[in-house]
């Protein structure tokens, strides 16, 4: 069950973002104070310059005095401009490194370490994408908040200061400015709400766009796209997305335009009224010329502050929406334990205790059907179990449960009598050498793929030994850089691609390198030719001696090196026993075996052995 979603308020999010920034780089505070100071003072100087010039002439009447006042004004003004620019560059630099190191890396870490089912479902994948937008992109999420928050503080101070000054002239001007600004803000809020409501649609569009872009530029589907002439499909996909995006943009622009038009009307009305009051003051003799100049400056300055604050707030709120997504992702609760869980006893690392599935049920969707139904079996310490059954029977799902990637929706999985949910999952993972069905290599060296470590921490002679045992060395030996050759060209233009069969051998080498007490192999030979497959079985047989193993195949004959066979159908274990026992039983296993052996009679890998 998902924990009730926390609400992240704006205030709370601002604090969160700034606390994180300050923790990493305390100097960042200076950046914020500096931004506030220079913005405020710079604008004030801009506003009072005209009044000061008028005063220097009307009151003293000397050119030298005028020049001096103007020189001081200009100097302060330049100082503020340069200061705010310098701070901007300086803090952008610090900000960028902090953003990447703290926000992005934390997210990466979370997404790689959180319970697997927290990132696997499409809904969680979408949340993860949105969270990434919040921290990874320029002018998004954290960046929007970081830029706009100090400016809002400066603006609020500016509004207070200018309001006080205006009230000194005539409080009616104040009322006019405030009322009109509030009306504009309400209009603005309407357009913003529309944008927020449509954020989900936008993300969907962006997500699909990203997918299409990736597919059309990657090599993986390049062959099929050409042969099956799918280019039109992609083009129309792009067209549709662009149209939908444009439709949303147009609707949003209309609302924004309404704000702009009403704004222009209000600004004109406000200025006319305010200036009218000031001019009347001059005619009455209550307001001096210098005061009049100051009044004009403050009225238009205040209007500008109000305009700015709306703009900054709307960006801040937009950033805030994204921070909410980021924090939602960061706070997705993990149900498996790690450090706080039970530490794995040392003797388990040599020999795994019994594993027991006790009335385990599992479903992917909360309201979906059960994929595994009342599964109960055990793998005794050192026992090798074969799990066989047709496609879609639930074999791979069961493996992922055993590996602590999913939580059972019912029942429990016990390791040495302890529920898997109480163990330190990281340490438990140390006990497993796995090959999953959807294998993939990572774009590092062959040796790195085998050891799962960086090169400094890799035992190269052991890597070779494992490659030899996995029958891959003959292919690696002939490469210029041998086991240091990088895989794929994602990072290295000289990287190489392995065939499906070679990748499966590489995976075997990885299992051998890890030398864990339990092997979990999900169809590890599907891409191999029969002879390579049969060699591989021999190697598995040797490698798993004295270890526990769960071996999956839809090829029944391939599992004879196992002690016991579980036959699974539609999520239920319907038969168990040795190969011969199951044949004698003449049940489902015997039936499927009979059908399969007709196909595999010649050279079938498992058939040599009785
Ligand atoms: P097997 O490995 O025996 O071929 P799987 O365990 O992969 O079977 O799949 C069992 C059932 O669960 C299938 O009906 C499959 O469609 C479904 N299934 C597998 N993975 C997922 C998933 N990530 N989300 C939803 N359903 C899934
Ligand atoms: Mg499978």
Q: In this structure, how is the largest beta sheet organized?
A: 6 strands, mixed
Radius of gyration: 35 Å
Percent in helix: 55-70%
The separation of the N and C termini measures: 48 Å
> Could you say which structural class the secondary elements and strand pairing correspond to?
alpha/beta
Strand order of the largest sheet: 6-7-8-3-9-10
Count of β-strands:
10
- Average pLDDT over all residues: 87
- The unreliable regions are 603-610
- β-strand percent reads 5-15%
Count of DSSP-assigned helices: 21
Bound chemical compounds:
adenosine-5'-diphosphate, magnesium ion
What characteristic shape results from the CA principal axes? elongated
Overview of this structure, please?
This protein is of the alpha/beta class and 610 residues long. The chain is built from 21 helices and ten strands. The strands form two sheets. It has a six-stranded mixed beta sheet. Strands 2-1-4-5 form a four-stranded antiparallel beta sheet, covered by helices on one side. α7 runs parallel beside α11 (289-330) and α16 packs across α18. The two termini are 48 Å apart. The structure holds adenosine-5'-diphosphate and magnesium ion (MG). Magnesium ion (MG) binds next to α13.
Task: List the keywords.
63% helix; binds adenosine-5'-diphosphate; 6-stranded mixed β-sheet; 21 helices; disordered C terminus; single chain
Summarize the structure.
With 610 residues, this protein is of the alpha/beta class. The chain has helices at 10-24, 28-60, 63-113, 117-120, 122-136, 141-169, 171-197, 199-217, 222-227, 231-284, 289-330, 346-350, 395-402, 425-430, 446-451, 460-469, 473-476, 500-514, 530-543, 579-585, 588-600; strands spanning 355-362, 372-379, 384-388, 410-415, 418-419, 432-435, 518-522, 548-553, 564-569, 572-577.
């Amino acid at each position: 069950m998902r924990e009730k979603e926390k609400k992240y308020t704006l205030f709370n999010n601002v604090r969160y973002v700034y606390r994180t920034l300050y923790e990493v780089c305390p100097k960042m505070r200076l950046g914020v104070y500096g931004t506030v100071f220079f913005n405020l003072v710079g604008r004030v100087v801009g506003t009072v310059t005209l009044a000061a010039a008028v005063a220097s002439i009307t009151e003293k009447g000397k050119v030298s005095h005028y020049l001096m006042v103007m020189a001081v004004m200009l100097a302060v003004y330049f100082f503020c401009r340069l200061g705010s620019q310098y701070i901007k560059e300086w803090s952008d630099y610090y900000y960028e490194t902090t953003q990447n190191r703290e926000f992005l890396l934390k997210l990466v870490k979370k997404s790689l370490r959180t319970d697997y089912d927290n990132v696997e479902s499409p809904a969680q994948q979408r949340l993860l994408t949105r969270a990434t937008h919040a921290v990874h992109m320029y002018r998004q999420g954290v960046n929007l908040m970081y830029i706009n928050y100090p400016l809002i503080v400066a603006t609020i101070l500016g509004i207070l200061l200018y309001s006080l000054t205006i009230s000194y002239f005539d409080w009616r001007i104040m009322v006019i400015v405030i009322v009109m600004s509030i009306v504009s803000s309400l209009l603005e809020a309407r357009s913003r709400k529309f944008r927020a409501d449509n954020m989900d649609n936008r993300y969907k569009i962006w997500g699909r766009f990203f997918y299409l872009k990736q597919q059309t530029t990657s090599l993986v589907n390049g062959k099929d796209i050409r042969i099956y002439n799918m280019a039109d499909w992609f083009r129309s996909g792009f067209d549709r997305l662009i149209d939908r995006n444009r439709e949303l943009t147009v609707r949003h622009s209309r609302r924004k335009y309404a704000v702009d038009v009403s704004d222009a009307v209000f600004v004109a009305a406000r200025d006319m009224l305010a200036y009218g009051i000031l001019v009347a003051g001059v005619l009455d003799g209550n307001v001096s010329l210098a005061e009049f100049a100051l009044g004009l400056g403050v009225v238009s300055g205040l209007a500008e502050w109000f305009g700015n604050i709306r703009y900054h707030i709307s960006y801040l709120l937009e950033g805030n929406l994204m921070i909410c997504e980021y924090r939602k992702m960061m706070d997705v609760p993990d149900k498996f334990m790690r450090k706080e869980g039970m530490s794995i006893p040392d003797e388990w690392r040599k020999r795994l205790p019994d594993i027991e599935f006790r009335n385990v049920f599992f479903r992917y969707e909360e309201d979906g059907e059960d994929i595994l139904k009342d599964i109960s079996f055990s793998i005794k310490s050192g026992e090798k179990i074969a799990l066989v059954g047709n496609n879609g029977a639930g074999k791979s799902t069961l493996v992922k449960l055993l590996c602590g990637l999913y939580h059972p929706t019912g029942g429990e999985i016990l390791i040495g009598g302890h529920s898997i949910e109480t163990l330190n999952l990281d340490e438990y993972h140390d006990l497993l050498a796995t090959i999953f069905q959807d294998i993939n290599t990572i774009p590092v060296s062959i040796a790195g793929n085998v050891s799962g470590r960086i090169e400094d921490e890799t035992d190269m002679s052991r890597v070779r030994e494992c490659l030899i045992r996995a029958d891959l060395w003959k292919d690696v030996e002939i490469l210029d850089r041998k086991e240091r050759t990088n895989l794929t060209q994602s990072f290295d233009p000289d990287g190489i691609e392995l065939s499906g069969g070679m990748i499966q051998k590489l995976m075997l080498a990885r299992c051998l390198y890890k030398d864990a007490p339990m092997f979990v192999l999900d169809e590890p030979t599907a891409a191999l030719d029969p002879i390579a497959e049969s060699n591989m079985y021999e190697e598995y047989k040797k490698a798993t001696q004295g270890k526990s193993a769960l071996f999956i195949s839809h090829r029944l004959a391939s599992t004879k090196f196992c002690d016991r066979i579980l036959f699974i159908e539609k999520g239920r274990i319907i038969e168990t026993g040795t190969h011969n026992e199951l044949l004698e039983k003449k049940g489902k296993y015997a039936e499927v075996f009979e059908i399969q052996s007709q196909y595999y009679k010649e050279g079938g890998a498992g058939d040599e052995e009785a």
